[in-house]
Amino acid sequence: MNNVSPFQPKLLSKINERLVLKMIQERGPSTRSEMSKYIGVTFPTVAKAVSSLLDSQLLEEIDDTSEGPGRPAKRLRLASENSQVIGITLGGDECTVVVGDLNGVVHEESMVRFSTPATYETLLKEFETSAKQLMLQGGKKTLGVGVSVPAVIDYREQVVVLSANMPFLNGKSIGRDIQAHLGQECVIVRDSHALSLSERLHGNAKEISNFAMLDLCAGIGLGLMVEGRFLTGDSGFAGEIGHNLIVPDGEMCVCGKRGCLESVASEWAIEKRMSGILGRPVRINEVLEMAQAGDQQAINELERMCEYLAIGLAHVVNILNPGTFFIYGRVFEACPELLNRLVEKTKALALEPSVSACEFSLASCSLQDGTVASVINYLTDSLVPNLDGYLSSLRQNDSQNGVSEEALVSN
Ligand SMILES: [Zn+2]
């Protein structure tokens, strides 16, 4: 009986393409022979996958002159000369548009910055102008656009649900709207998720399967990588720690409930408190400058923020047992001693065995890195969803027995 689905060969081809891409992401430029041995499939199977990836301009072929005399072997690397991606970040004060390559390298010199406009229509127009300018420069093919948004996003519906300081985004399908303006595939991600993907793909979490990423900005977000899998939850709301109850019957939050972590420990909460104390509107940058200059009121407010944040971090440590807790936020860059304060408080609150096994470290990637990593992750994932478990088993075989001989996927 023939029970083979007519779609199976196509799926197997996509799986092989995904494995080739992931191998090069992890091990760098490789020859077809190396891929065949490492992935455990035949040479013709690898050659077919490579050919398809060259056609779609995700890979480039280079001569390897390091192997001595004779005909040089051809190595395949992620595209950097002929292809590019565009990364867009939205912030309460400022937006940026950059070019990146498939290796996750952000071309800082390409960065266009502009103050965040007051209306959605102007925002789309600004993005269109800046991104089209970057797409035309250099003669490279643009493969996709990643957009990082500081907001709660419904990934299933591709809609912004709640933005703390840009309410005009609420209910908007900003990814689809930018796609319509640019004629490019566009993926939207929450900023904390973008940071996590970047740390995993190109930062200090390449070898860490379980980590958390605190993103302290206007609001508070949390990125989660568990067993090598990036958690979004059913609709994209995983990690919304900012709206966990911390102070019963506390201050009103932007989400409509009271006493959320955001209402006491976010940038907007600090701005609100300090504005009340000083009797005039105060932005976070001024609060940080005051703290750096030794102003005791500003220091007290930031330390109070850390005490509340530590409660949230201790919950995450106890529930998820992360190996590393990355911390992102200009507050910690401006006042590094606050990180020590936060870690000290978290250690005092979390379960000892979990917290003693957890390292705390500033995030190594920027939001711009995150937007580029997000679109790369999207391009890779659009072939076939997660194959990290399979590649982990290859790494174990590799270290224990040399390269895997087993052909698991071959057509
Ligand atoms: Zn809330």
What order do the helices and strands come in, and which of them pair?
Elements: H1 8-27, H2 32-39, H3 43-55, E1 59-64, E2 73-78, E3 83-89, E4 94-100, E5 106-115, H4 120-136, E6 141-149, E7 151-154, E8 159-163, H5 174-182, E9 186-190, H6 191-202, E10 211-216, E11 220-226, E12 229-230, H7 262-265, H8 267-278, H9 284-292, H10 296-320, E13 324-328, H11 330-334, H12 337-349, H13 352-356, E14 359-362, H14 367-381, H15 388-401
Parallel strand pairs: 3-6, 6-9, 10-13, 13-14
Antiparallel strand pairs: 1-2, 3-4, 4-5, 7-8, 10-11, 11-12
Helix pairs in contact: 1-3, 2-3, 4-5, 6-14, 9-10, 10-12
The structure holds zinc ion (ZN).
Low-confidence stretches: 401-411
Number of discrete domains: 3
* Structural class by sheet pairing and helices: alpha/beta
The coarse overall form would be globular
Explain this structure.
- With 411 residues, this protein is α/β, with parallel strands linked by helices.
- It has 3 domains: 8-78, Arc Repressor Mutant, subunit A (Orthogonal Bundle), CATH 1.10.10; 83-196 and 368-380, 2-Layer Sandwich (Nucleotidyltransferase, domain 5); 204-364, ATPase, nucleotide binding domain (Nucleotidyltransferase, domain 5), CATH 3.30.420.
- It is built from 15 helices and 14 strands.
- The protein has helices spanning 8-27, 32-39, 43-55, 120-136, 174-182, 191-202, 262-265, 267-278, 284-292, 296-320, 330-334, 337-349, 352-356, 367-381, 388-401; strands at 59-64, 73-78, 83-89, 94-100, 106-115, 141-149, 151-154, 159-163, 186-190, 211-216, 220-226, 229-230, 324-328, 359-362.
- The protein has a 5-stranded mixed beta sheet with strand order 5-4-3-6-9, sandwiched between helices.
- A hairpin with a 5-residue loop joins strand 4 (94-100) and strand 5 (106-115).
- Bound molecules: zinc ion.
- This is N-acetylglucosamine repressor.
